[in-house]
Design brief:
Helix content: 40-55%
Radius of gyration: 19 Å
Shape: globular
Strand order of the largest sheet: 1-2-3
Order of helices and strands: HHHHHHHHHHEEEH
Distance between the termini: 43 Å
Number of strands: 3
Oligomer: single chain
Largest sheet: 3 strands, antiparallel
């Protein structure tokens, strides 16, 4: 069976979590009764199921001849304790965590790395466009670089499970003339990182009221999807989603 190891140079940027979820994601259960805030156990449960599903689907599509035992073996290899430790250390997740010193040994164990990684996944998944962001991030986390470009239009692209609704957008309200233009910034970052970017455009709606749907495909993976009354606005929204899915940061943040 082919090895599915993950090497550190392939790691994509860590998707950010907004303020609504950030405090809970990075609060350990040891502080639950201390300051009255929530903790990350709920996010870790969600993130575990989401991450395992993404990994399983990746193996399922990459190896169409694998039987059940081979899928399980490959899944366990990717979800090994050593990989969780590598991921947690690379992204410095435990350094961000608030906890009581009595929990130090637990947090710095293999299980602690697994827990905080899953909590971050759950936090990202809980946000707007979270399922697409997680899918794009996990894809770039585990897929070897030499396979990514070949996947454009292939079996690794799949529709996200509910609840994401990427075609529903309030783009005209969020993109006034003074709003940050994500498209040129996204193109600049993609060029610097030598990412393979393709755009998929579809026009629908009525003749007098057209609707454009634009998909932003990065290294063969759908990372952004925009819908608007003009092609440019839809492309801007797709670029914004891809920018956030890939963990890019605006200057000054």
């Amino acid at each position: 069976m082919t090895s599915l190891s993950v090497s550190e140079p392939q790691y994509p940027a860590l998707p950010p979590i907004n303020g609504e979820h950030l405090l809970n994601v990075y609060t350990h259960k040891s502080l639950r009764m201390v300051d009255g805030s929530g903790d990350n156990e709920r996010y870790a449960v969600l993130g575990e199921k989401v991450f395992e599903a993404e990994i399983t689907y990746y193996i399922f599509t990459r190896h169409p001849t694998y039987d059940r035992k081979e899928i399980e073996a490959a899944r366990l290899e990717l979800l090994s304790a050593s990989n969780y430790v590598k991921w947690a250390n690379h992204y410095k997740l435990r350094e961000k965590l608030r906890y009581n010193q009595s929990a130090f040994d637990e947090i710095h164990s293999h299980e602690g790395a697994r827990e905080i990684f899953h909590a971050h996944v759950g936090g990202v998944y809980s946000q707007e466009n979270g399922p697409m962001t997680v899918n794009c991030w996990v894809y770039n986390l585990v897929v070897p670089p030499d396979e990514r470009k070949d996947a454009t239009g292939g079996s690794l692209q799949h529709q996200q499970p509910p609840p994401p609704t990427p075609h529903v957008t309030t783009l005209p309200l969020h993109l006034p003339k003074t709003h940050t233009a994500y498209l040129p910034r996204f193109n600049e970052m993609a060029m610097k990182r030598r990412l393979d970017v393709q755009w998929r455009a579809e026009q629908g709606g009525l003749q007098h009221s057209p609707r454009w749907n634009i998909g932003c495909i990065v290294n063969g993976k759908l990372c952004g999807n925009g819908s608007a009354t003009t092609k440019q606005l839809a492309k801007e929204e797709a670029a914004k989603q891809a920018f956030q899915s890939l963990g890019f940061q605006l200057p000054g943040y």
